[in-house]
Amino acid sequence: MKELDLNIQETDTFEEPEMDMLKYEREAWDSGAEYITGIDEVGRGCLFGDVVAAAVILPKGLVLEGVNDSKKLSDKKRELLFDIIMKEAVAVGIGIVDVETIDRINIRQASRLAMKQAVHALTPSPDHLLVDAETVDIPLPQLSIIKGDANSQSIGAASIIAKVTRDRMCKGEWDALYPEYGIAIHKGYATKLHREQLLALGPTPLHRRSFLGKILGEQEQPTLF
Prior knowledge:
Mean pLDDT: 91
Organism: Paenibacillus urinalis
Largest sheet: 5 strands, mixed
Strand order of the largest sheet: 3-2-1-4-5
Structural class: alpha/beta
Strand content: 5-15%
Function: Endonuclease that specifically degrades the RNA of RNA-DNA hybrids.
Order of helices and strands: HEEHEHHEEHHHH
Protein name: Ribonuclease HII
Catalytic activity: Endonucleolytic cleavage to 5'-phosphomonoester
Distance between the termini: 85 Å
Number of helices: 8
Number of strands: 5
Cofactor: Mg(2+); Mn(2+)
Low-confidence stretches: 1-17, 218-222
């Protein structure tokens, strides 16, 4: 019996197929949609600050190299792509929901409200929505995509716009208001530094009280004014 030649040359390589970041957009275009909108939010898991959402309509067929889940990109890369997206996009909308509302209606509903605001801020109005693992309370055709920011260029673009917008709020006005908390460094997430400063100084008016129970425990902490 003839032996099979299983030798693999050193030059042989096996590469993962590239992700088609326009797969969902192409399906929507083929269905007749024109203004396909990617939607994502940032700040859902933070202890501090508003939740920010972005909605982005990109030109049909445009390919933006490097667009991906914003969490996978460096600050420098996000800032660069932010400028490119803002220049190339047909429209960009931003939605922001404050801490008081987050505590009142819960973070999921606040995130959905920010997404709805972002869509309503678009001109022209969209006719098809691609949403990162969520639904938006708007009577338009829409598709919720798990890990959408890594699988759809439109959603990835929205994640970058939302992330850079919120990071600038953290590094600017919020850090200036409460420099002791290190907001510019941790962006409001529950890092060791943030938890330590919360225990030492108590929450500020921009902390989400509904998120602080396990950190503050039963001890009543004064609000820093």
